[in-house]
Each structure stands twice: as structure tokens, then as C-alpha cells.
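Dear support,

We are seeing what looks like truncated structure output for some complexes. This example has two components. We would appreciate it if you could run it in full and send us the complete C-alpha cell output so we can diff it against ours.
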Amino acid sequence: MQILQELAAKNGPLCVGLDTDPSYIPLSVLQKYSSPAEAVLDYNKEIIDRVKSAGSACCCKVQIAYYEAMGLSGMKAYAETLRLVKEAGLICISDIKRGDIANTAAAYAKAHFTGDFETDIITVNPYMGFDTLKPFTSYCSPKNFSEENKLGAEKGIFVLLRTSNPGMVDIEQQQLVSGKRVLDAVGAELENISKEFSAQYKDMTCSPVGAVVGCTEESDARILRDAYQDIFFLIPGYGAQGGKARIAATLLDKAGGTVNSSRGILCAWKNSPTCLEKDKEGSLTMDDLGDSAGCAALEAKDDLLGAVKELKA
Amino acid sequence: MQILQELAAKNGPLCVGLDTDPSYIPLSVLQKYSSPAEAVLDYNKEIIDRVKSAGSACCCKVQIAYYEAMGLSGMKAYAETLRLVKEAGLICISDIKRGDIANTAAAYAKAHFTGDFETDIITVNPYMGFDTLKPFTSYCSPKNFSEENKLGAEKGIFVLLRTSNPGMVDIEQQQLVSGKRVLDAVGAELENISKEFSAQYKDMTCSPVGAVVGCTEESDARILRDAYQDIFFLIPGYGAQGGKARIAATLLDKAGGTVNSSRGILCAWKNSPTCLEKDKEGSLTMDDLGDSAGCAALEAKDDLLGAVKELKA
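Here is the complete output from our reference environment:
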């Protein structure tokens, strides 16, 4: 999380969401590939290349659901995508929202912090209780850090705190008799874990345990940013989901965070007259789609940095 | 869920948990295989064969975490295991505990109700809200049923209600200002969904939306069984996790349920003097392990049916 925080300061707070559903690729391009998974992987590669060369983002978030939906070939494309993100010098967040108990949680941690699906940071669902976080946080000690070999050595988790969907009122927002909301019970535990880490590792400037906080409601954004000042946020809901840059900027205050945009980047070609024209003619290429996505990433970065500047003014 | 309920009445309530971590297979057997995933798949095959021929269980629950932990070869063994369970005429439950929003939830539903990872029933985490259940329940309408082609046509979900780990007090058991516990807010929603299904499909005898209820506390088991009489339960926590058959029997009342045993079956060879002796000699085979597991499954079935009988007496 510390390296992600540093990269966000350098490249800006954008997180490029590789929720690459094959349906986001126009049919005229998709059908040039022998399988949807190959097309998805190639599209991801084009996007990662452009993000790397433009320095438009600090990380990519790969949403595993879209790869699972393509079966075994999808899982291969998933593993390969993680590899490409890490090779590009970007932090790789695997949006897997796993959560389970004891041995099973340990198996999930092993699955996503080592081996074919090894990533830097994962998202975690805390519903079954705080004992379910331990198998993940046990991978997060910074003992393997060195200045030369920082990338890939750092593991972290983003725990679901306040998500960006309407249904978040059903459980997360429910009021407890203690006066807290359910999500605050989760937040308090994240602070406890973070304090334990900072007590143990004096050089650590950012807790490896972050929180997912959607940027869909301004008042709540300020409350949560003030409540959890030292926790780094993964911020979904920007762009296609309706979240405004201004709300994201509020959440980027204090310990900061990274703001995800998925469809706004993956489907950017739909707003490009050139791409639409080429699609009609049958001359559209993956390279064209990559260009549109690359530009959309740069625009998102500028939009976010502009909002941050405005908030500080 | 309806077919599972019927199979449970016929074969008894046991669910065989294929949480097959390679470490559960003795090294002397494991090293005969070219990869852990191959050994795991072969062990699963031995167990499924015995469960099928003995009629000792109504379903198998495959815990995906252990397969993810083996990477791409693990996912292949996972897909193959699901196929074997279905081929054996048993209901296949995929313990995946997924939960996500909108398009992403739809991708998970597609991933596990179609294609390489197609299963009959999945477990679902409701934390992000009840809108996250819809993409899954939309696969659960019984329109594809026919007497000739029942198996494989039925889809269902088990939603986490009361899990069997100590941390379940952190969120699930928290008291809301409404007077309910968080888990009861989930339960109430499950009842709503079930009522919608039964209003729409008059012939349906069991809601396709079940609940996960651990059998670790007797008082709570009775409360939950009485509160959700028409909901079929998936019951973890029996055996290795310390849950007693008597508590499981309480949960098997009313609409009934299926009681999972994983390690109690997978590690049964550790209690077999013959297996231990053969392991020492280096003559232990996968067939031997399968025999131990098969016997343990029969014993678990008898233990559960005995407890049910005693409760009714």
C-alpha cells in the first residue's frame, strides 16, 4: 500500500479498471480472435502499454468475475493480465472480494498472493467476521521490502467499507444499537489492524490494510475521510457509475487513495467518431481501441487532478 | 433446491465437502502424481465413486478456494470435479461465497451457472446488499424443469446467514436498532425472495434460495430453524469444526437441509490403522484413501440420521 501511495503521488490517483467483458469490444474486432479471452487479453495489453508510457495511472484493478465468466481460458487471460500489469511497473489490484474462514481463507490468501494468480493487493469482504482477515494480513508484513526490489514485494488488502451500489443501505449502512453503522464497526477494526502494523513496523508510512469507499455521496465521503484519516482508499463509482470527481477528490484527502475507472476507459471508443466510423467500415483495430482507452485514462487523470487542485484552493 | 431436498430425503442429509487441499493427501501417495492438482482430482474421483455407489450423500460441496490456490491447474481440476459430481447424479454445490454489484455480479452468475465452471448451486455473500442477489436469482426460475431432465436444470443459491466461525459475532450477530440482528435482516430478505418465487411458481415445493447456517450453537439453531421454516439450509461446522449431530438434526427439521463434512471425510485415513501402516511401508494407494473416506461418509450419514431419529422420538 505504501508503494501504491508513492506511485499515486507520482502518476496521479487513477486506477485503470480492467473489468474487460468481451461485450465491451466491438464485434468487428472481437471476431478477429480465436476466443473472447484472447481478445480481452490483447485489449488489456494495449491499455496497459499506453498507461505505462503515458504515466496516466498508479495501478490497474483487475476484476476477476469477468475472467471467471470465460471459464478456463478466462483464468489464463486473468493470470497473464496480472503479469502484464506488474511488468509495466504498476501496482496490480485483484478485485476478488473473497472472504471465508480459517483454512479456506488461508487457501484464498495463498491463491492470490502466490503462484499463477499472484497479485499485489486484493479486495476482501469482511462479512463473516474479523477473524477472516488474519490469513490475508499475515502476508502483508513489509519484511521483504528493499529499495531495489520494492515492486512485487508488497502485499496489501482493501476491505469493503462503503460500496457504491444502492443496496449498500441494506447491511453496510444499518444502524447498530451501539450507535455506529455496520460499516463503522468494520472501519474501527481496520484502524486497530493498522495501528498494530505501525507499532510493529516503524518505517511503514502507510498501512497495508486499506478500505473500499465508493464516491457516490458527498456528505458521506467527508465523514468517512475524516473518520479514517490514515487509511488509504480504493474508490470505485467514478465515471460510468455516476461518481463525481469532486467527491473522489474529497476521498483523496489525508492518506489518499486511488480512483477506479473501468467502463469509462474500456468503452471510450464508443465516444470516438473515428472508431465508430472505422467500426462501420470494418477497419477498426485493437490498436484504435487502445488509443481511445489511453486517451480516456489521461482525461480521467486530468479530471481527478483538477478536482483535487480545486478542493485545495 | 427442490431436487436437492428430494435427494436428501432419499440418500440422507450428508453433503460431502471436497475442500481437497493437497496437504490432506499423504506425501507417499501425493508424490506418485505429476502435480498436486492431479492427485486432488483423483482423490475426489475416488470419493465421488464411493458416495455414488453407497448412496451416502445427496450432494458434494466443492470449496473453490483450495483449487484457486493451485493456480491454473487447480482451476482445471475444479472444473473436472464439478463434472464428476454431476455425472454421479449428485447435486453439486460450489462454495464460492461470491458477492458483487450489477454487471460484476452478473459476470459471477454467468461464470458459475454456465460454461466450464457450471454448477447446480452456489454460496453467496450478501454483505454489499440485496441488489447483489438478483443477478444470481434470475438463473433460479424452474422453467427448465421436466421430470426426465431434472438434474442440472435446477439452479439455486445458499446465502450466508449464520456462519460457523468465532468471528460471526463481529457483523452477523450485531444488534440493529430495529431490534433485529444483522443476520435477521438477511433472513427476512431471503423470506421475501422465497415468497416471490412460490407466488410465481405454484408447483415449486422448495425455494431455490437457501441459507448457510452453521451447527455450532444449539440455542441459535432452534431459533433460526423456527424463524425460517420454509428455507432449506446448508449446514457447515459438523465434524472437524466441532458441530454436533444433535445440533445439525435441529437444523434439519422443517424444510430440512444438508450437513457438510469435509475434513472428517478427506482426512479419515489418518484414523485408519491400516492406512497408517501402509503409509509407513510406502504401499498406501489412492484407492485405500478412497475406502477410508467412503466409510467415513457412511458413518457420518448414520450419525446424522441417528440424531434426526432421536430428536423426533
